[in-house]
Design goal:
Distance between the termini: 45 Å
Shape: elongated
Mean pLDDT: 82
Strand content: 5-15%
Helix content: 55-70%
Number of strands: 2
Number of helices: 11
Oligomer: single chain
Radius of gyration: 20 Å
Length: 240
């Protein structure tokens, strides 16, 4: 029933537009009552993303048994669960991507879903790095980097209309994250006394799709002067 309702909803969104489609329209198309709709979906927005709850649960289960020796690799692999969910139905994924670009409310909802993925990854990393101080900070930064890298590769594929293998771009982006954060000394090596900052490593990733701008994730050694960080950000933005 959940799939029937989601399919009916999405068909109507494409035919009439999201704003002009009501819950009554959806249940009429699906041939069920309003109570059935709200049993599965709290809102119209939830019907656009019917697979994310299952994907979040799968990600949580995967991380629960992940290898403790490579936490960055584990969260990178967990992000690929989301990619496989999108790649399983390219036509639907591309249509949904285009719909969310057209409806601001859906874009906001999508960002809240992305944040839940990020929190799930960060929670796993905090259990490995520590709940306080630099451990917690590193967990948040790595989780944000993994999500940003994954989304960059995913959106490249979606903007292409679902052509080709989406794993190529995503694997490349995640490899950059693992190169920076997968090293044991990434957060523990102290800066040399009196040394100027090690150049920041920019990971430039797409923000929210066409016209939504760019997000740049910067990785710099602790103690890097702010002017150096700003310089590297400006350089990264200029290259993109």
């Amino acid at each position: 029933m959940r799939e029937v309702l989601a399919q009916a909803a999405f068909q109507l969104f494409l035919e009439r537009g999201f704003e002009r489609t009501t819950v009554d329209d959806i249940v009429a198309r699906a041939g069920v009552g309003r109570r059935s709709f709200f049993r599965y979906f709290p809102s119209k927005e939830d019907a656009v993303f019917p697979d994310h709850e299952r994907c979040l649960a799968e990600m949580t289960e995967f991380l629960a048994v992940a290898d403790d020796g490579d936490p960055v690799g584990a969260v990178s692999d967990a992000a690929r669960i989301v990619l496989r969910m999108y790649a399983a139905n390219p036509e639907f994924s591309v249509q949904r991507y285009r719909l969310t670009r057209e409806v601001p409310g859906l874009r906001t909802y999508e960002l809240s879903v992305v944040r839940r993925y990020e929190q799930t990854l960060a929670g796993h990393l905090r259990s490995r790095f520590g709940e306080d101080g630099d451990g917690a900070l590193r967990a948040e930064v790595v989780a944000a980097s993994v999500v940003a890298a994954h989304n960059n590769g995913l959106r490249l594929w979606l903007r292409s209309g679902g052509e080709g293998d989406p794993e190529v771009a995503v694997d490349h982006a995640l490899a950059l994250v693992r190169e920076v954060w997968g090293r044991p000394t990434a957060s523990t090596a102290p800066a040399a006394p009196g040394a100027s900052a090690v150049p920041a490593v920019p990971l430039a990733v797409s923000g929210g799709g066409d016209g939504d701008g760019e997000v740049v994730v910067m990785v710099a050694r602790k103690g890097t002067p702010m002017w150096r960080v700003v310089q590297q950000i400006e350089a990264a933005v200029g290259e993109n």
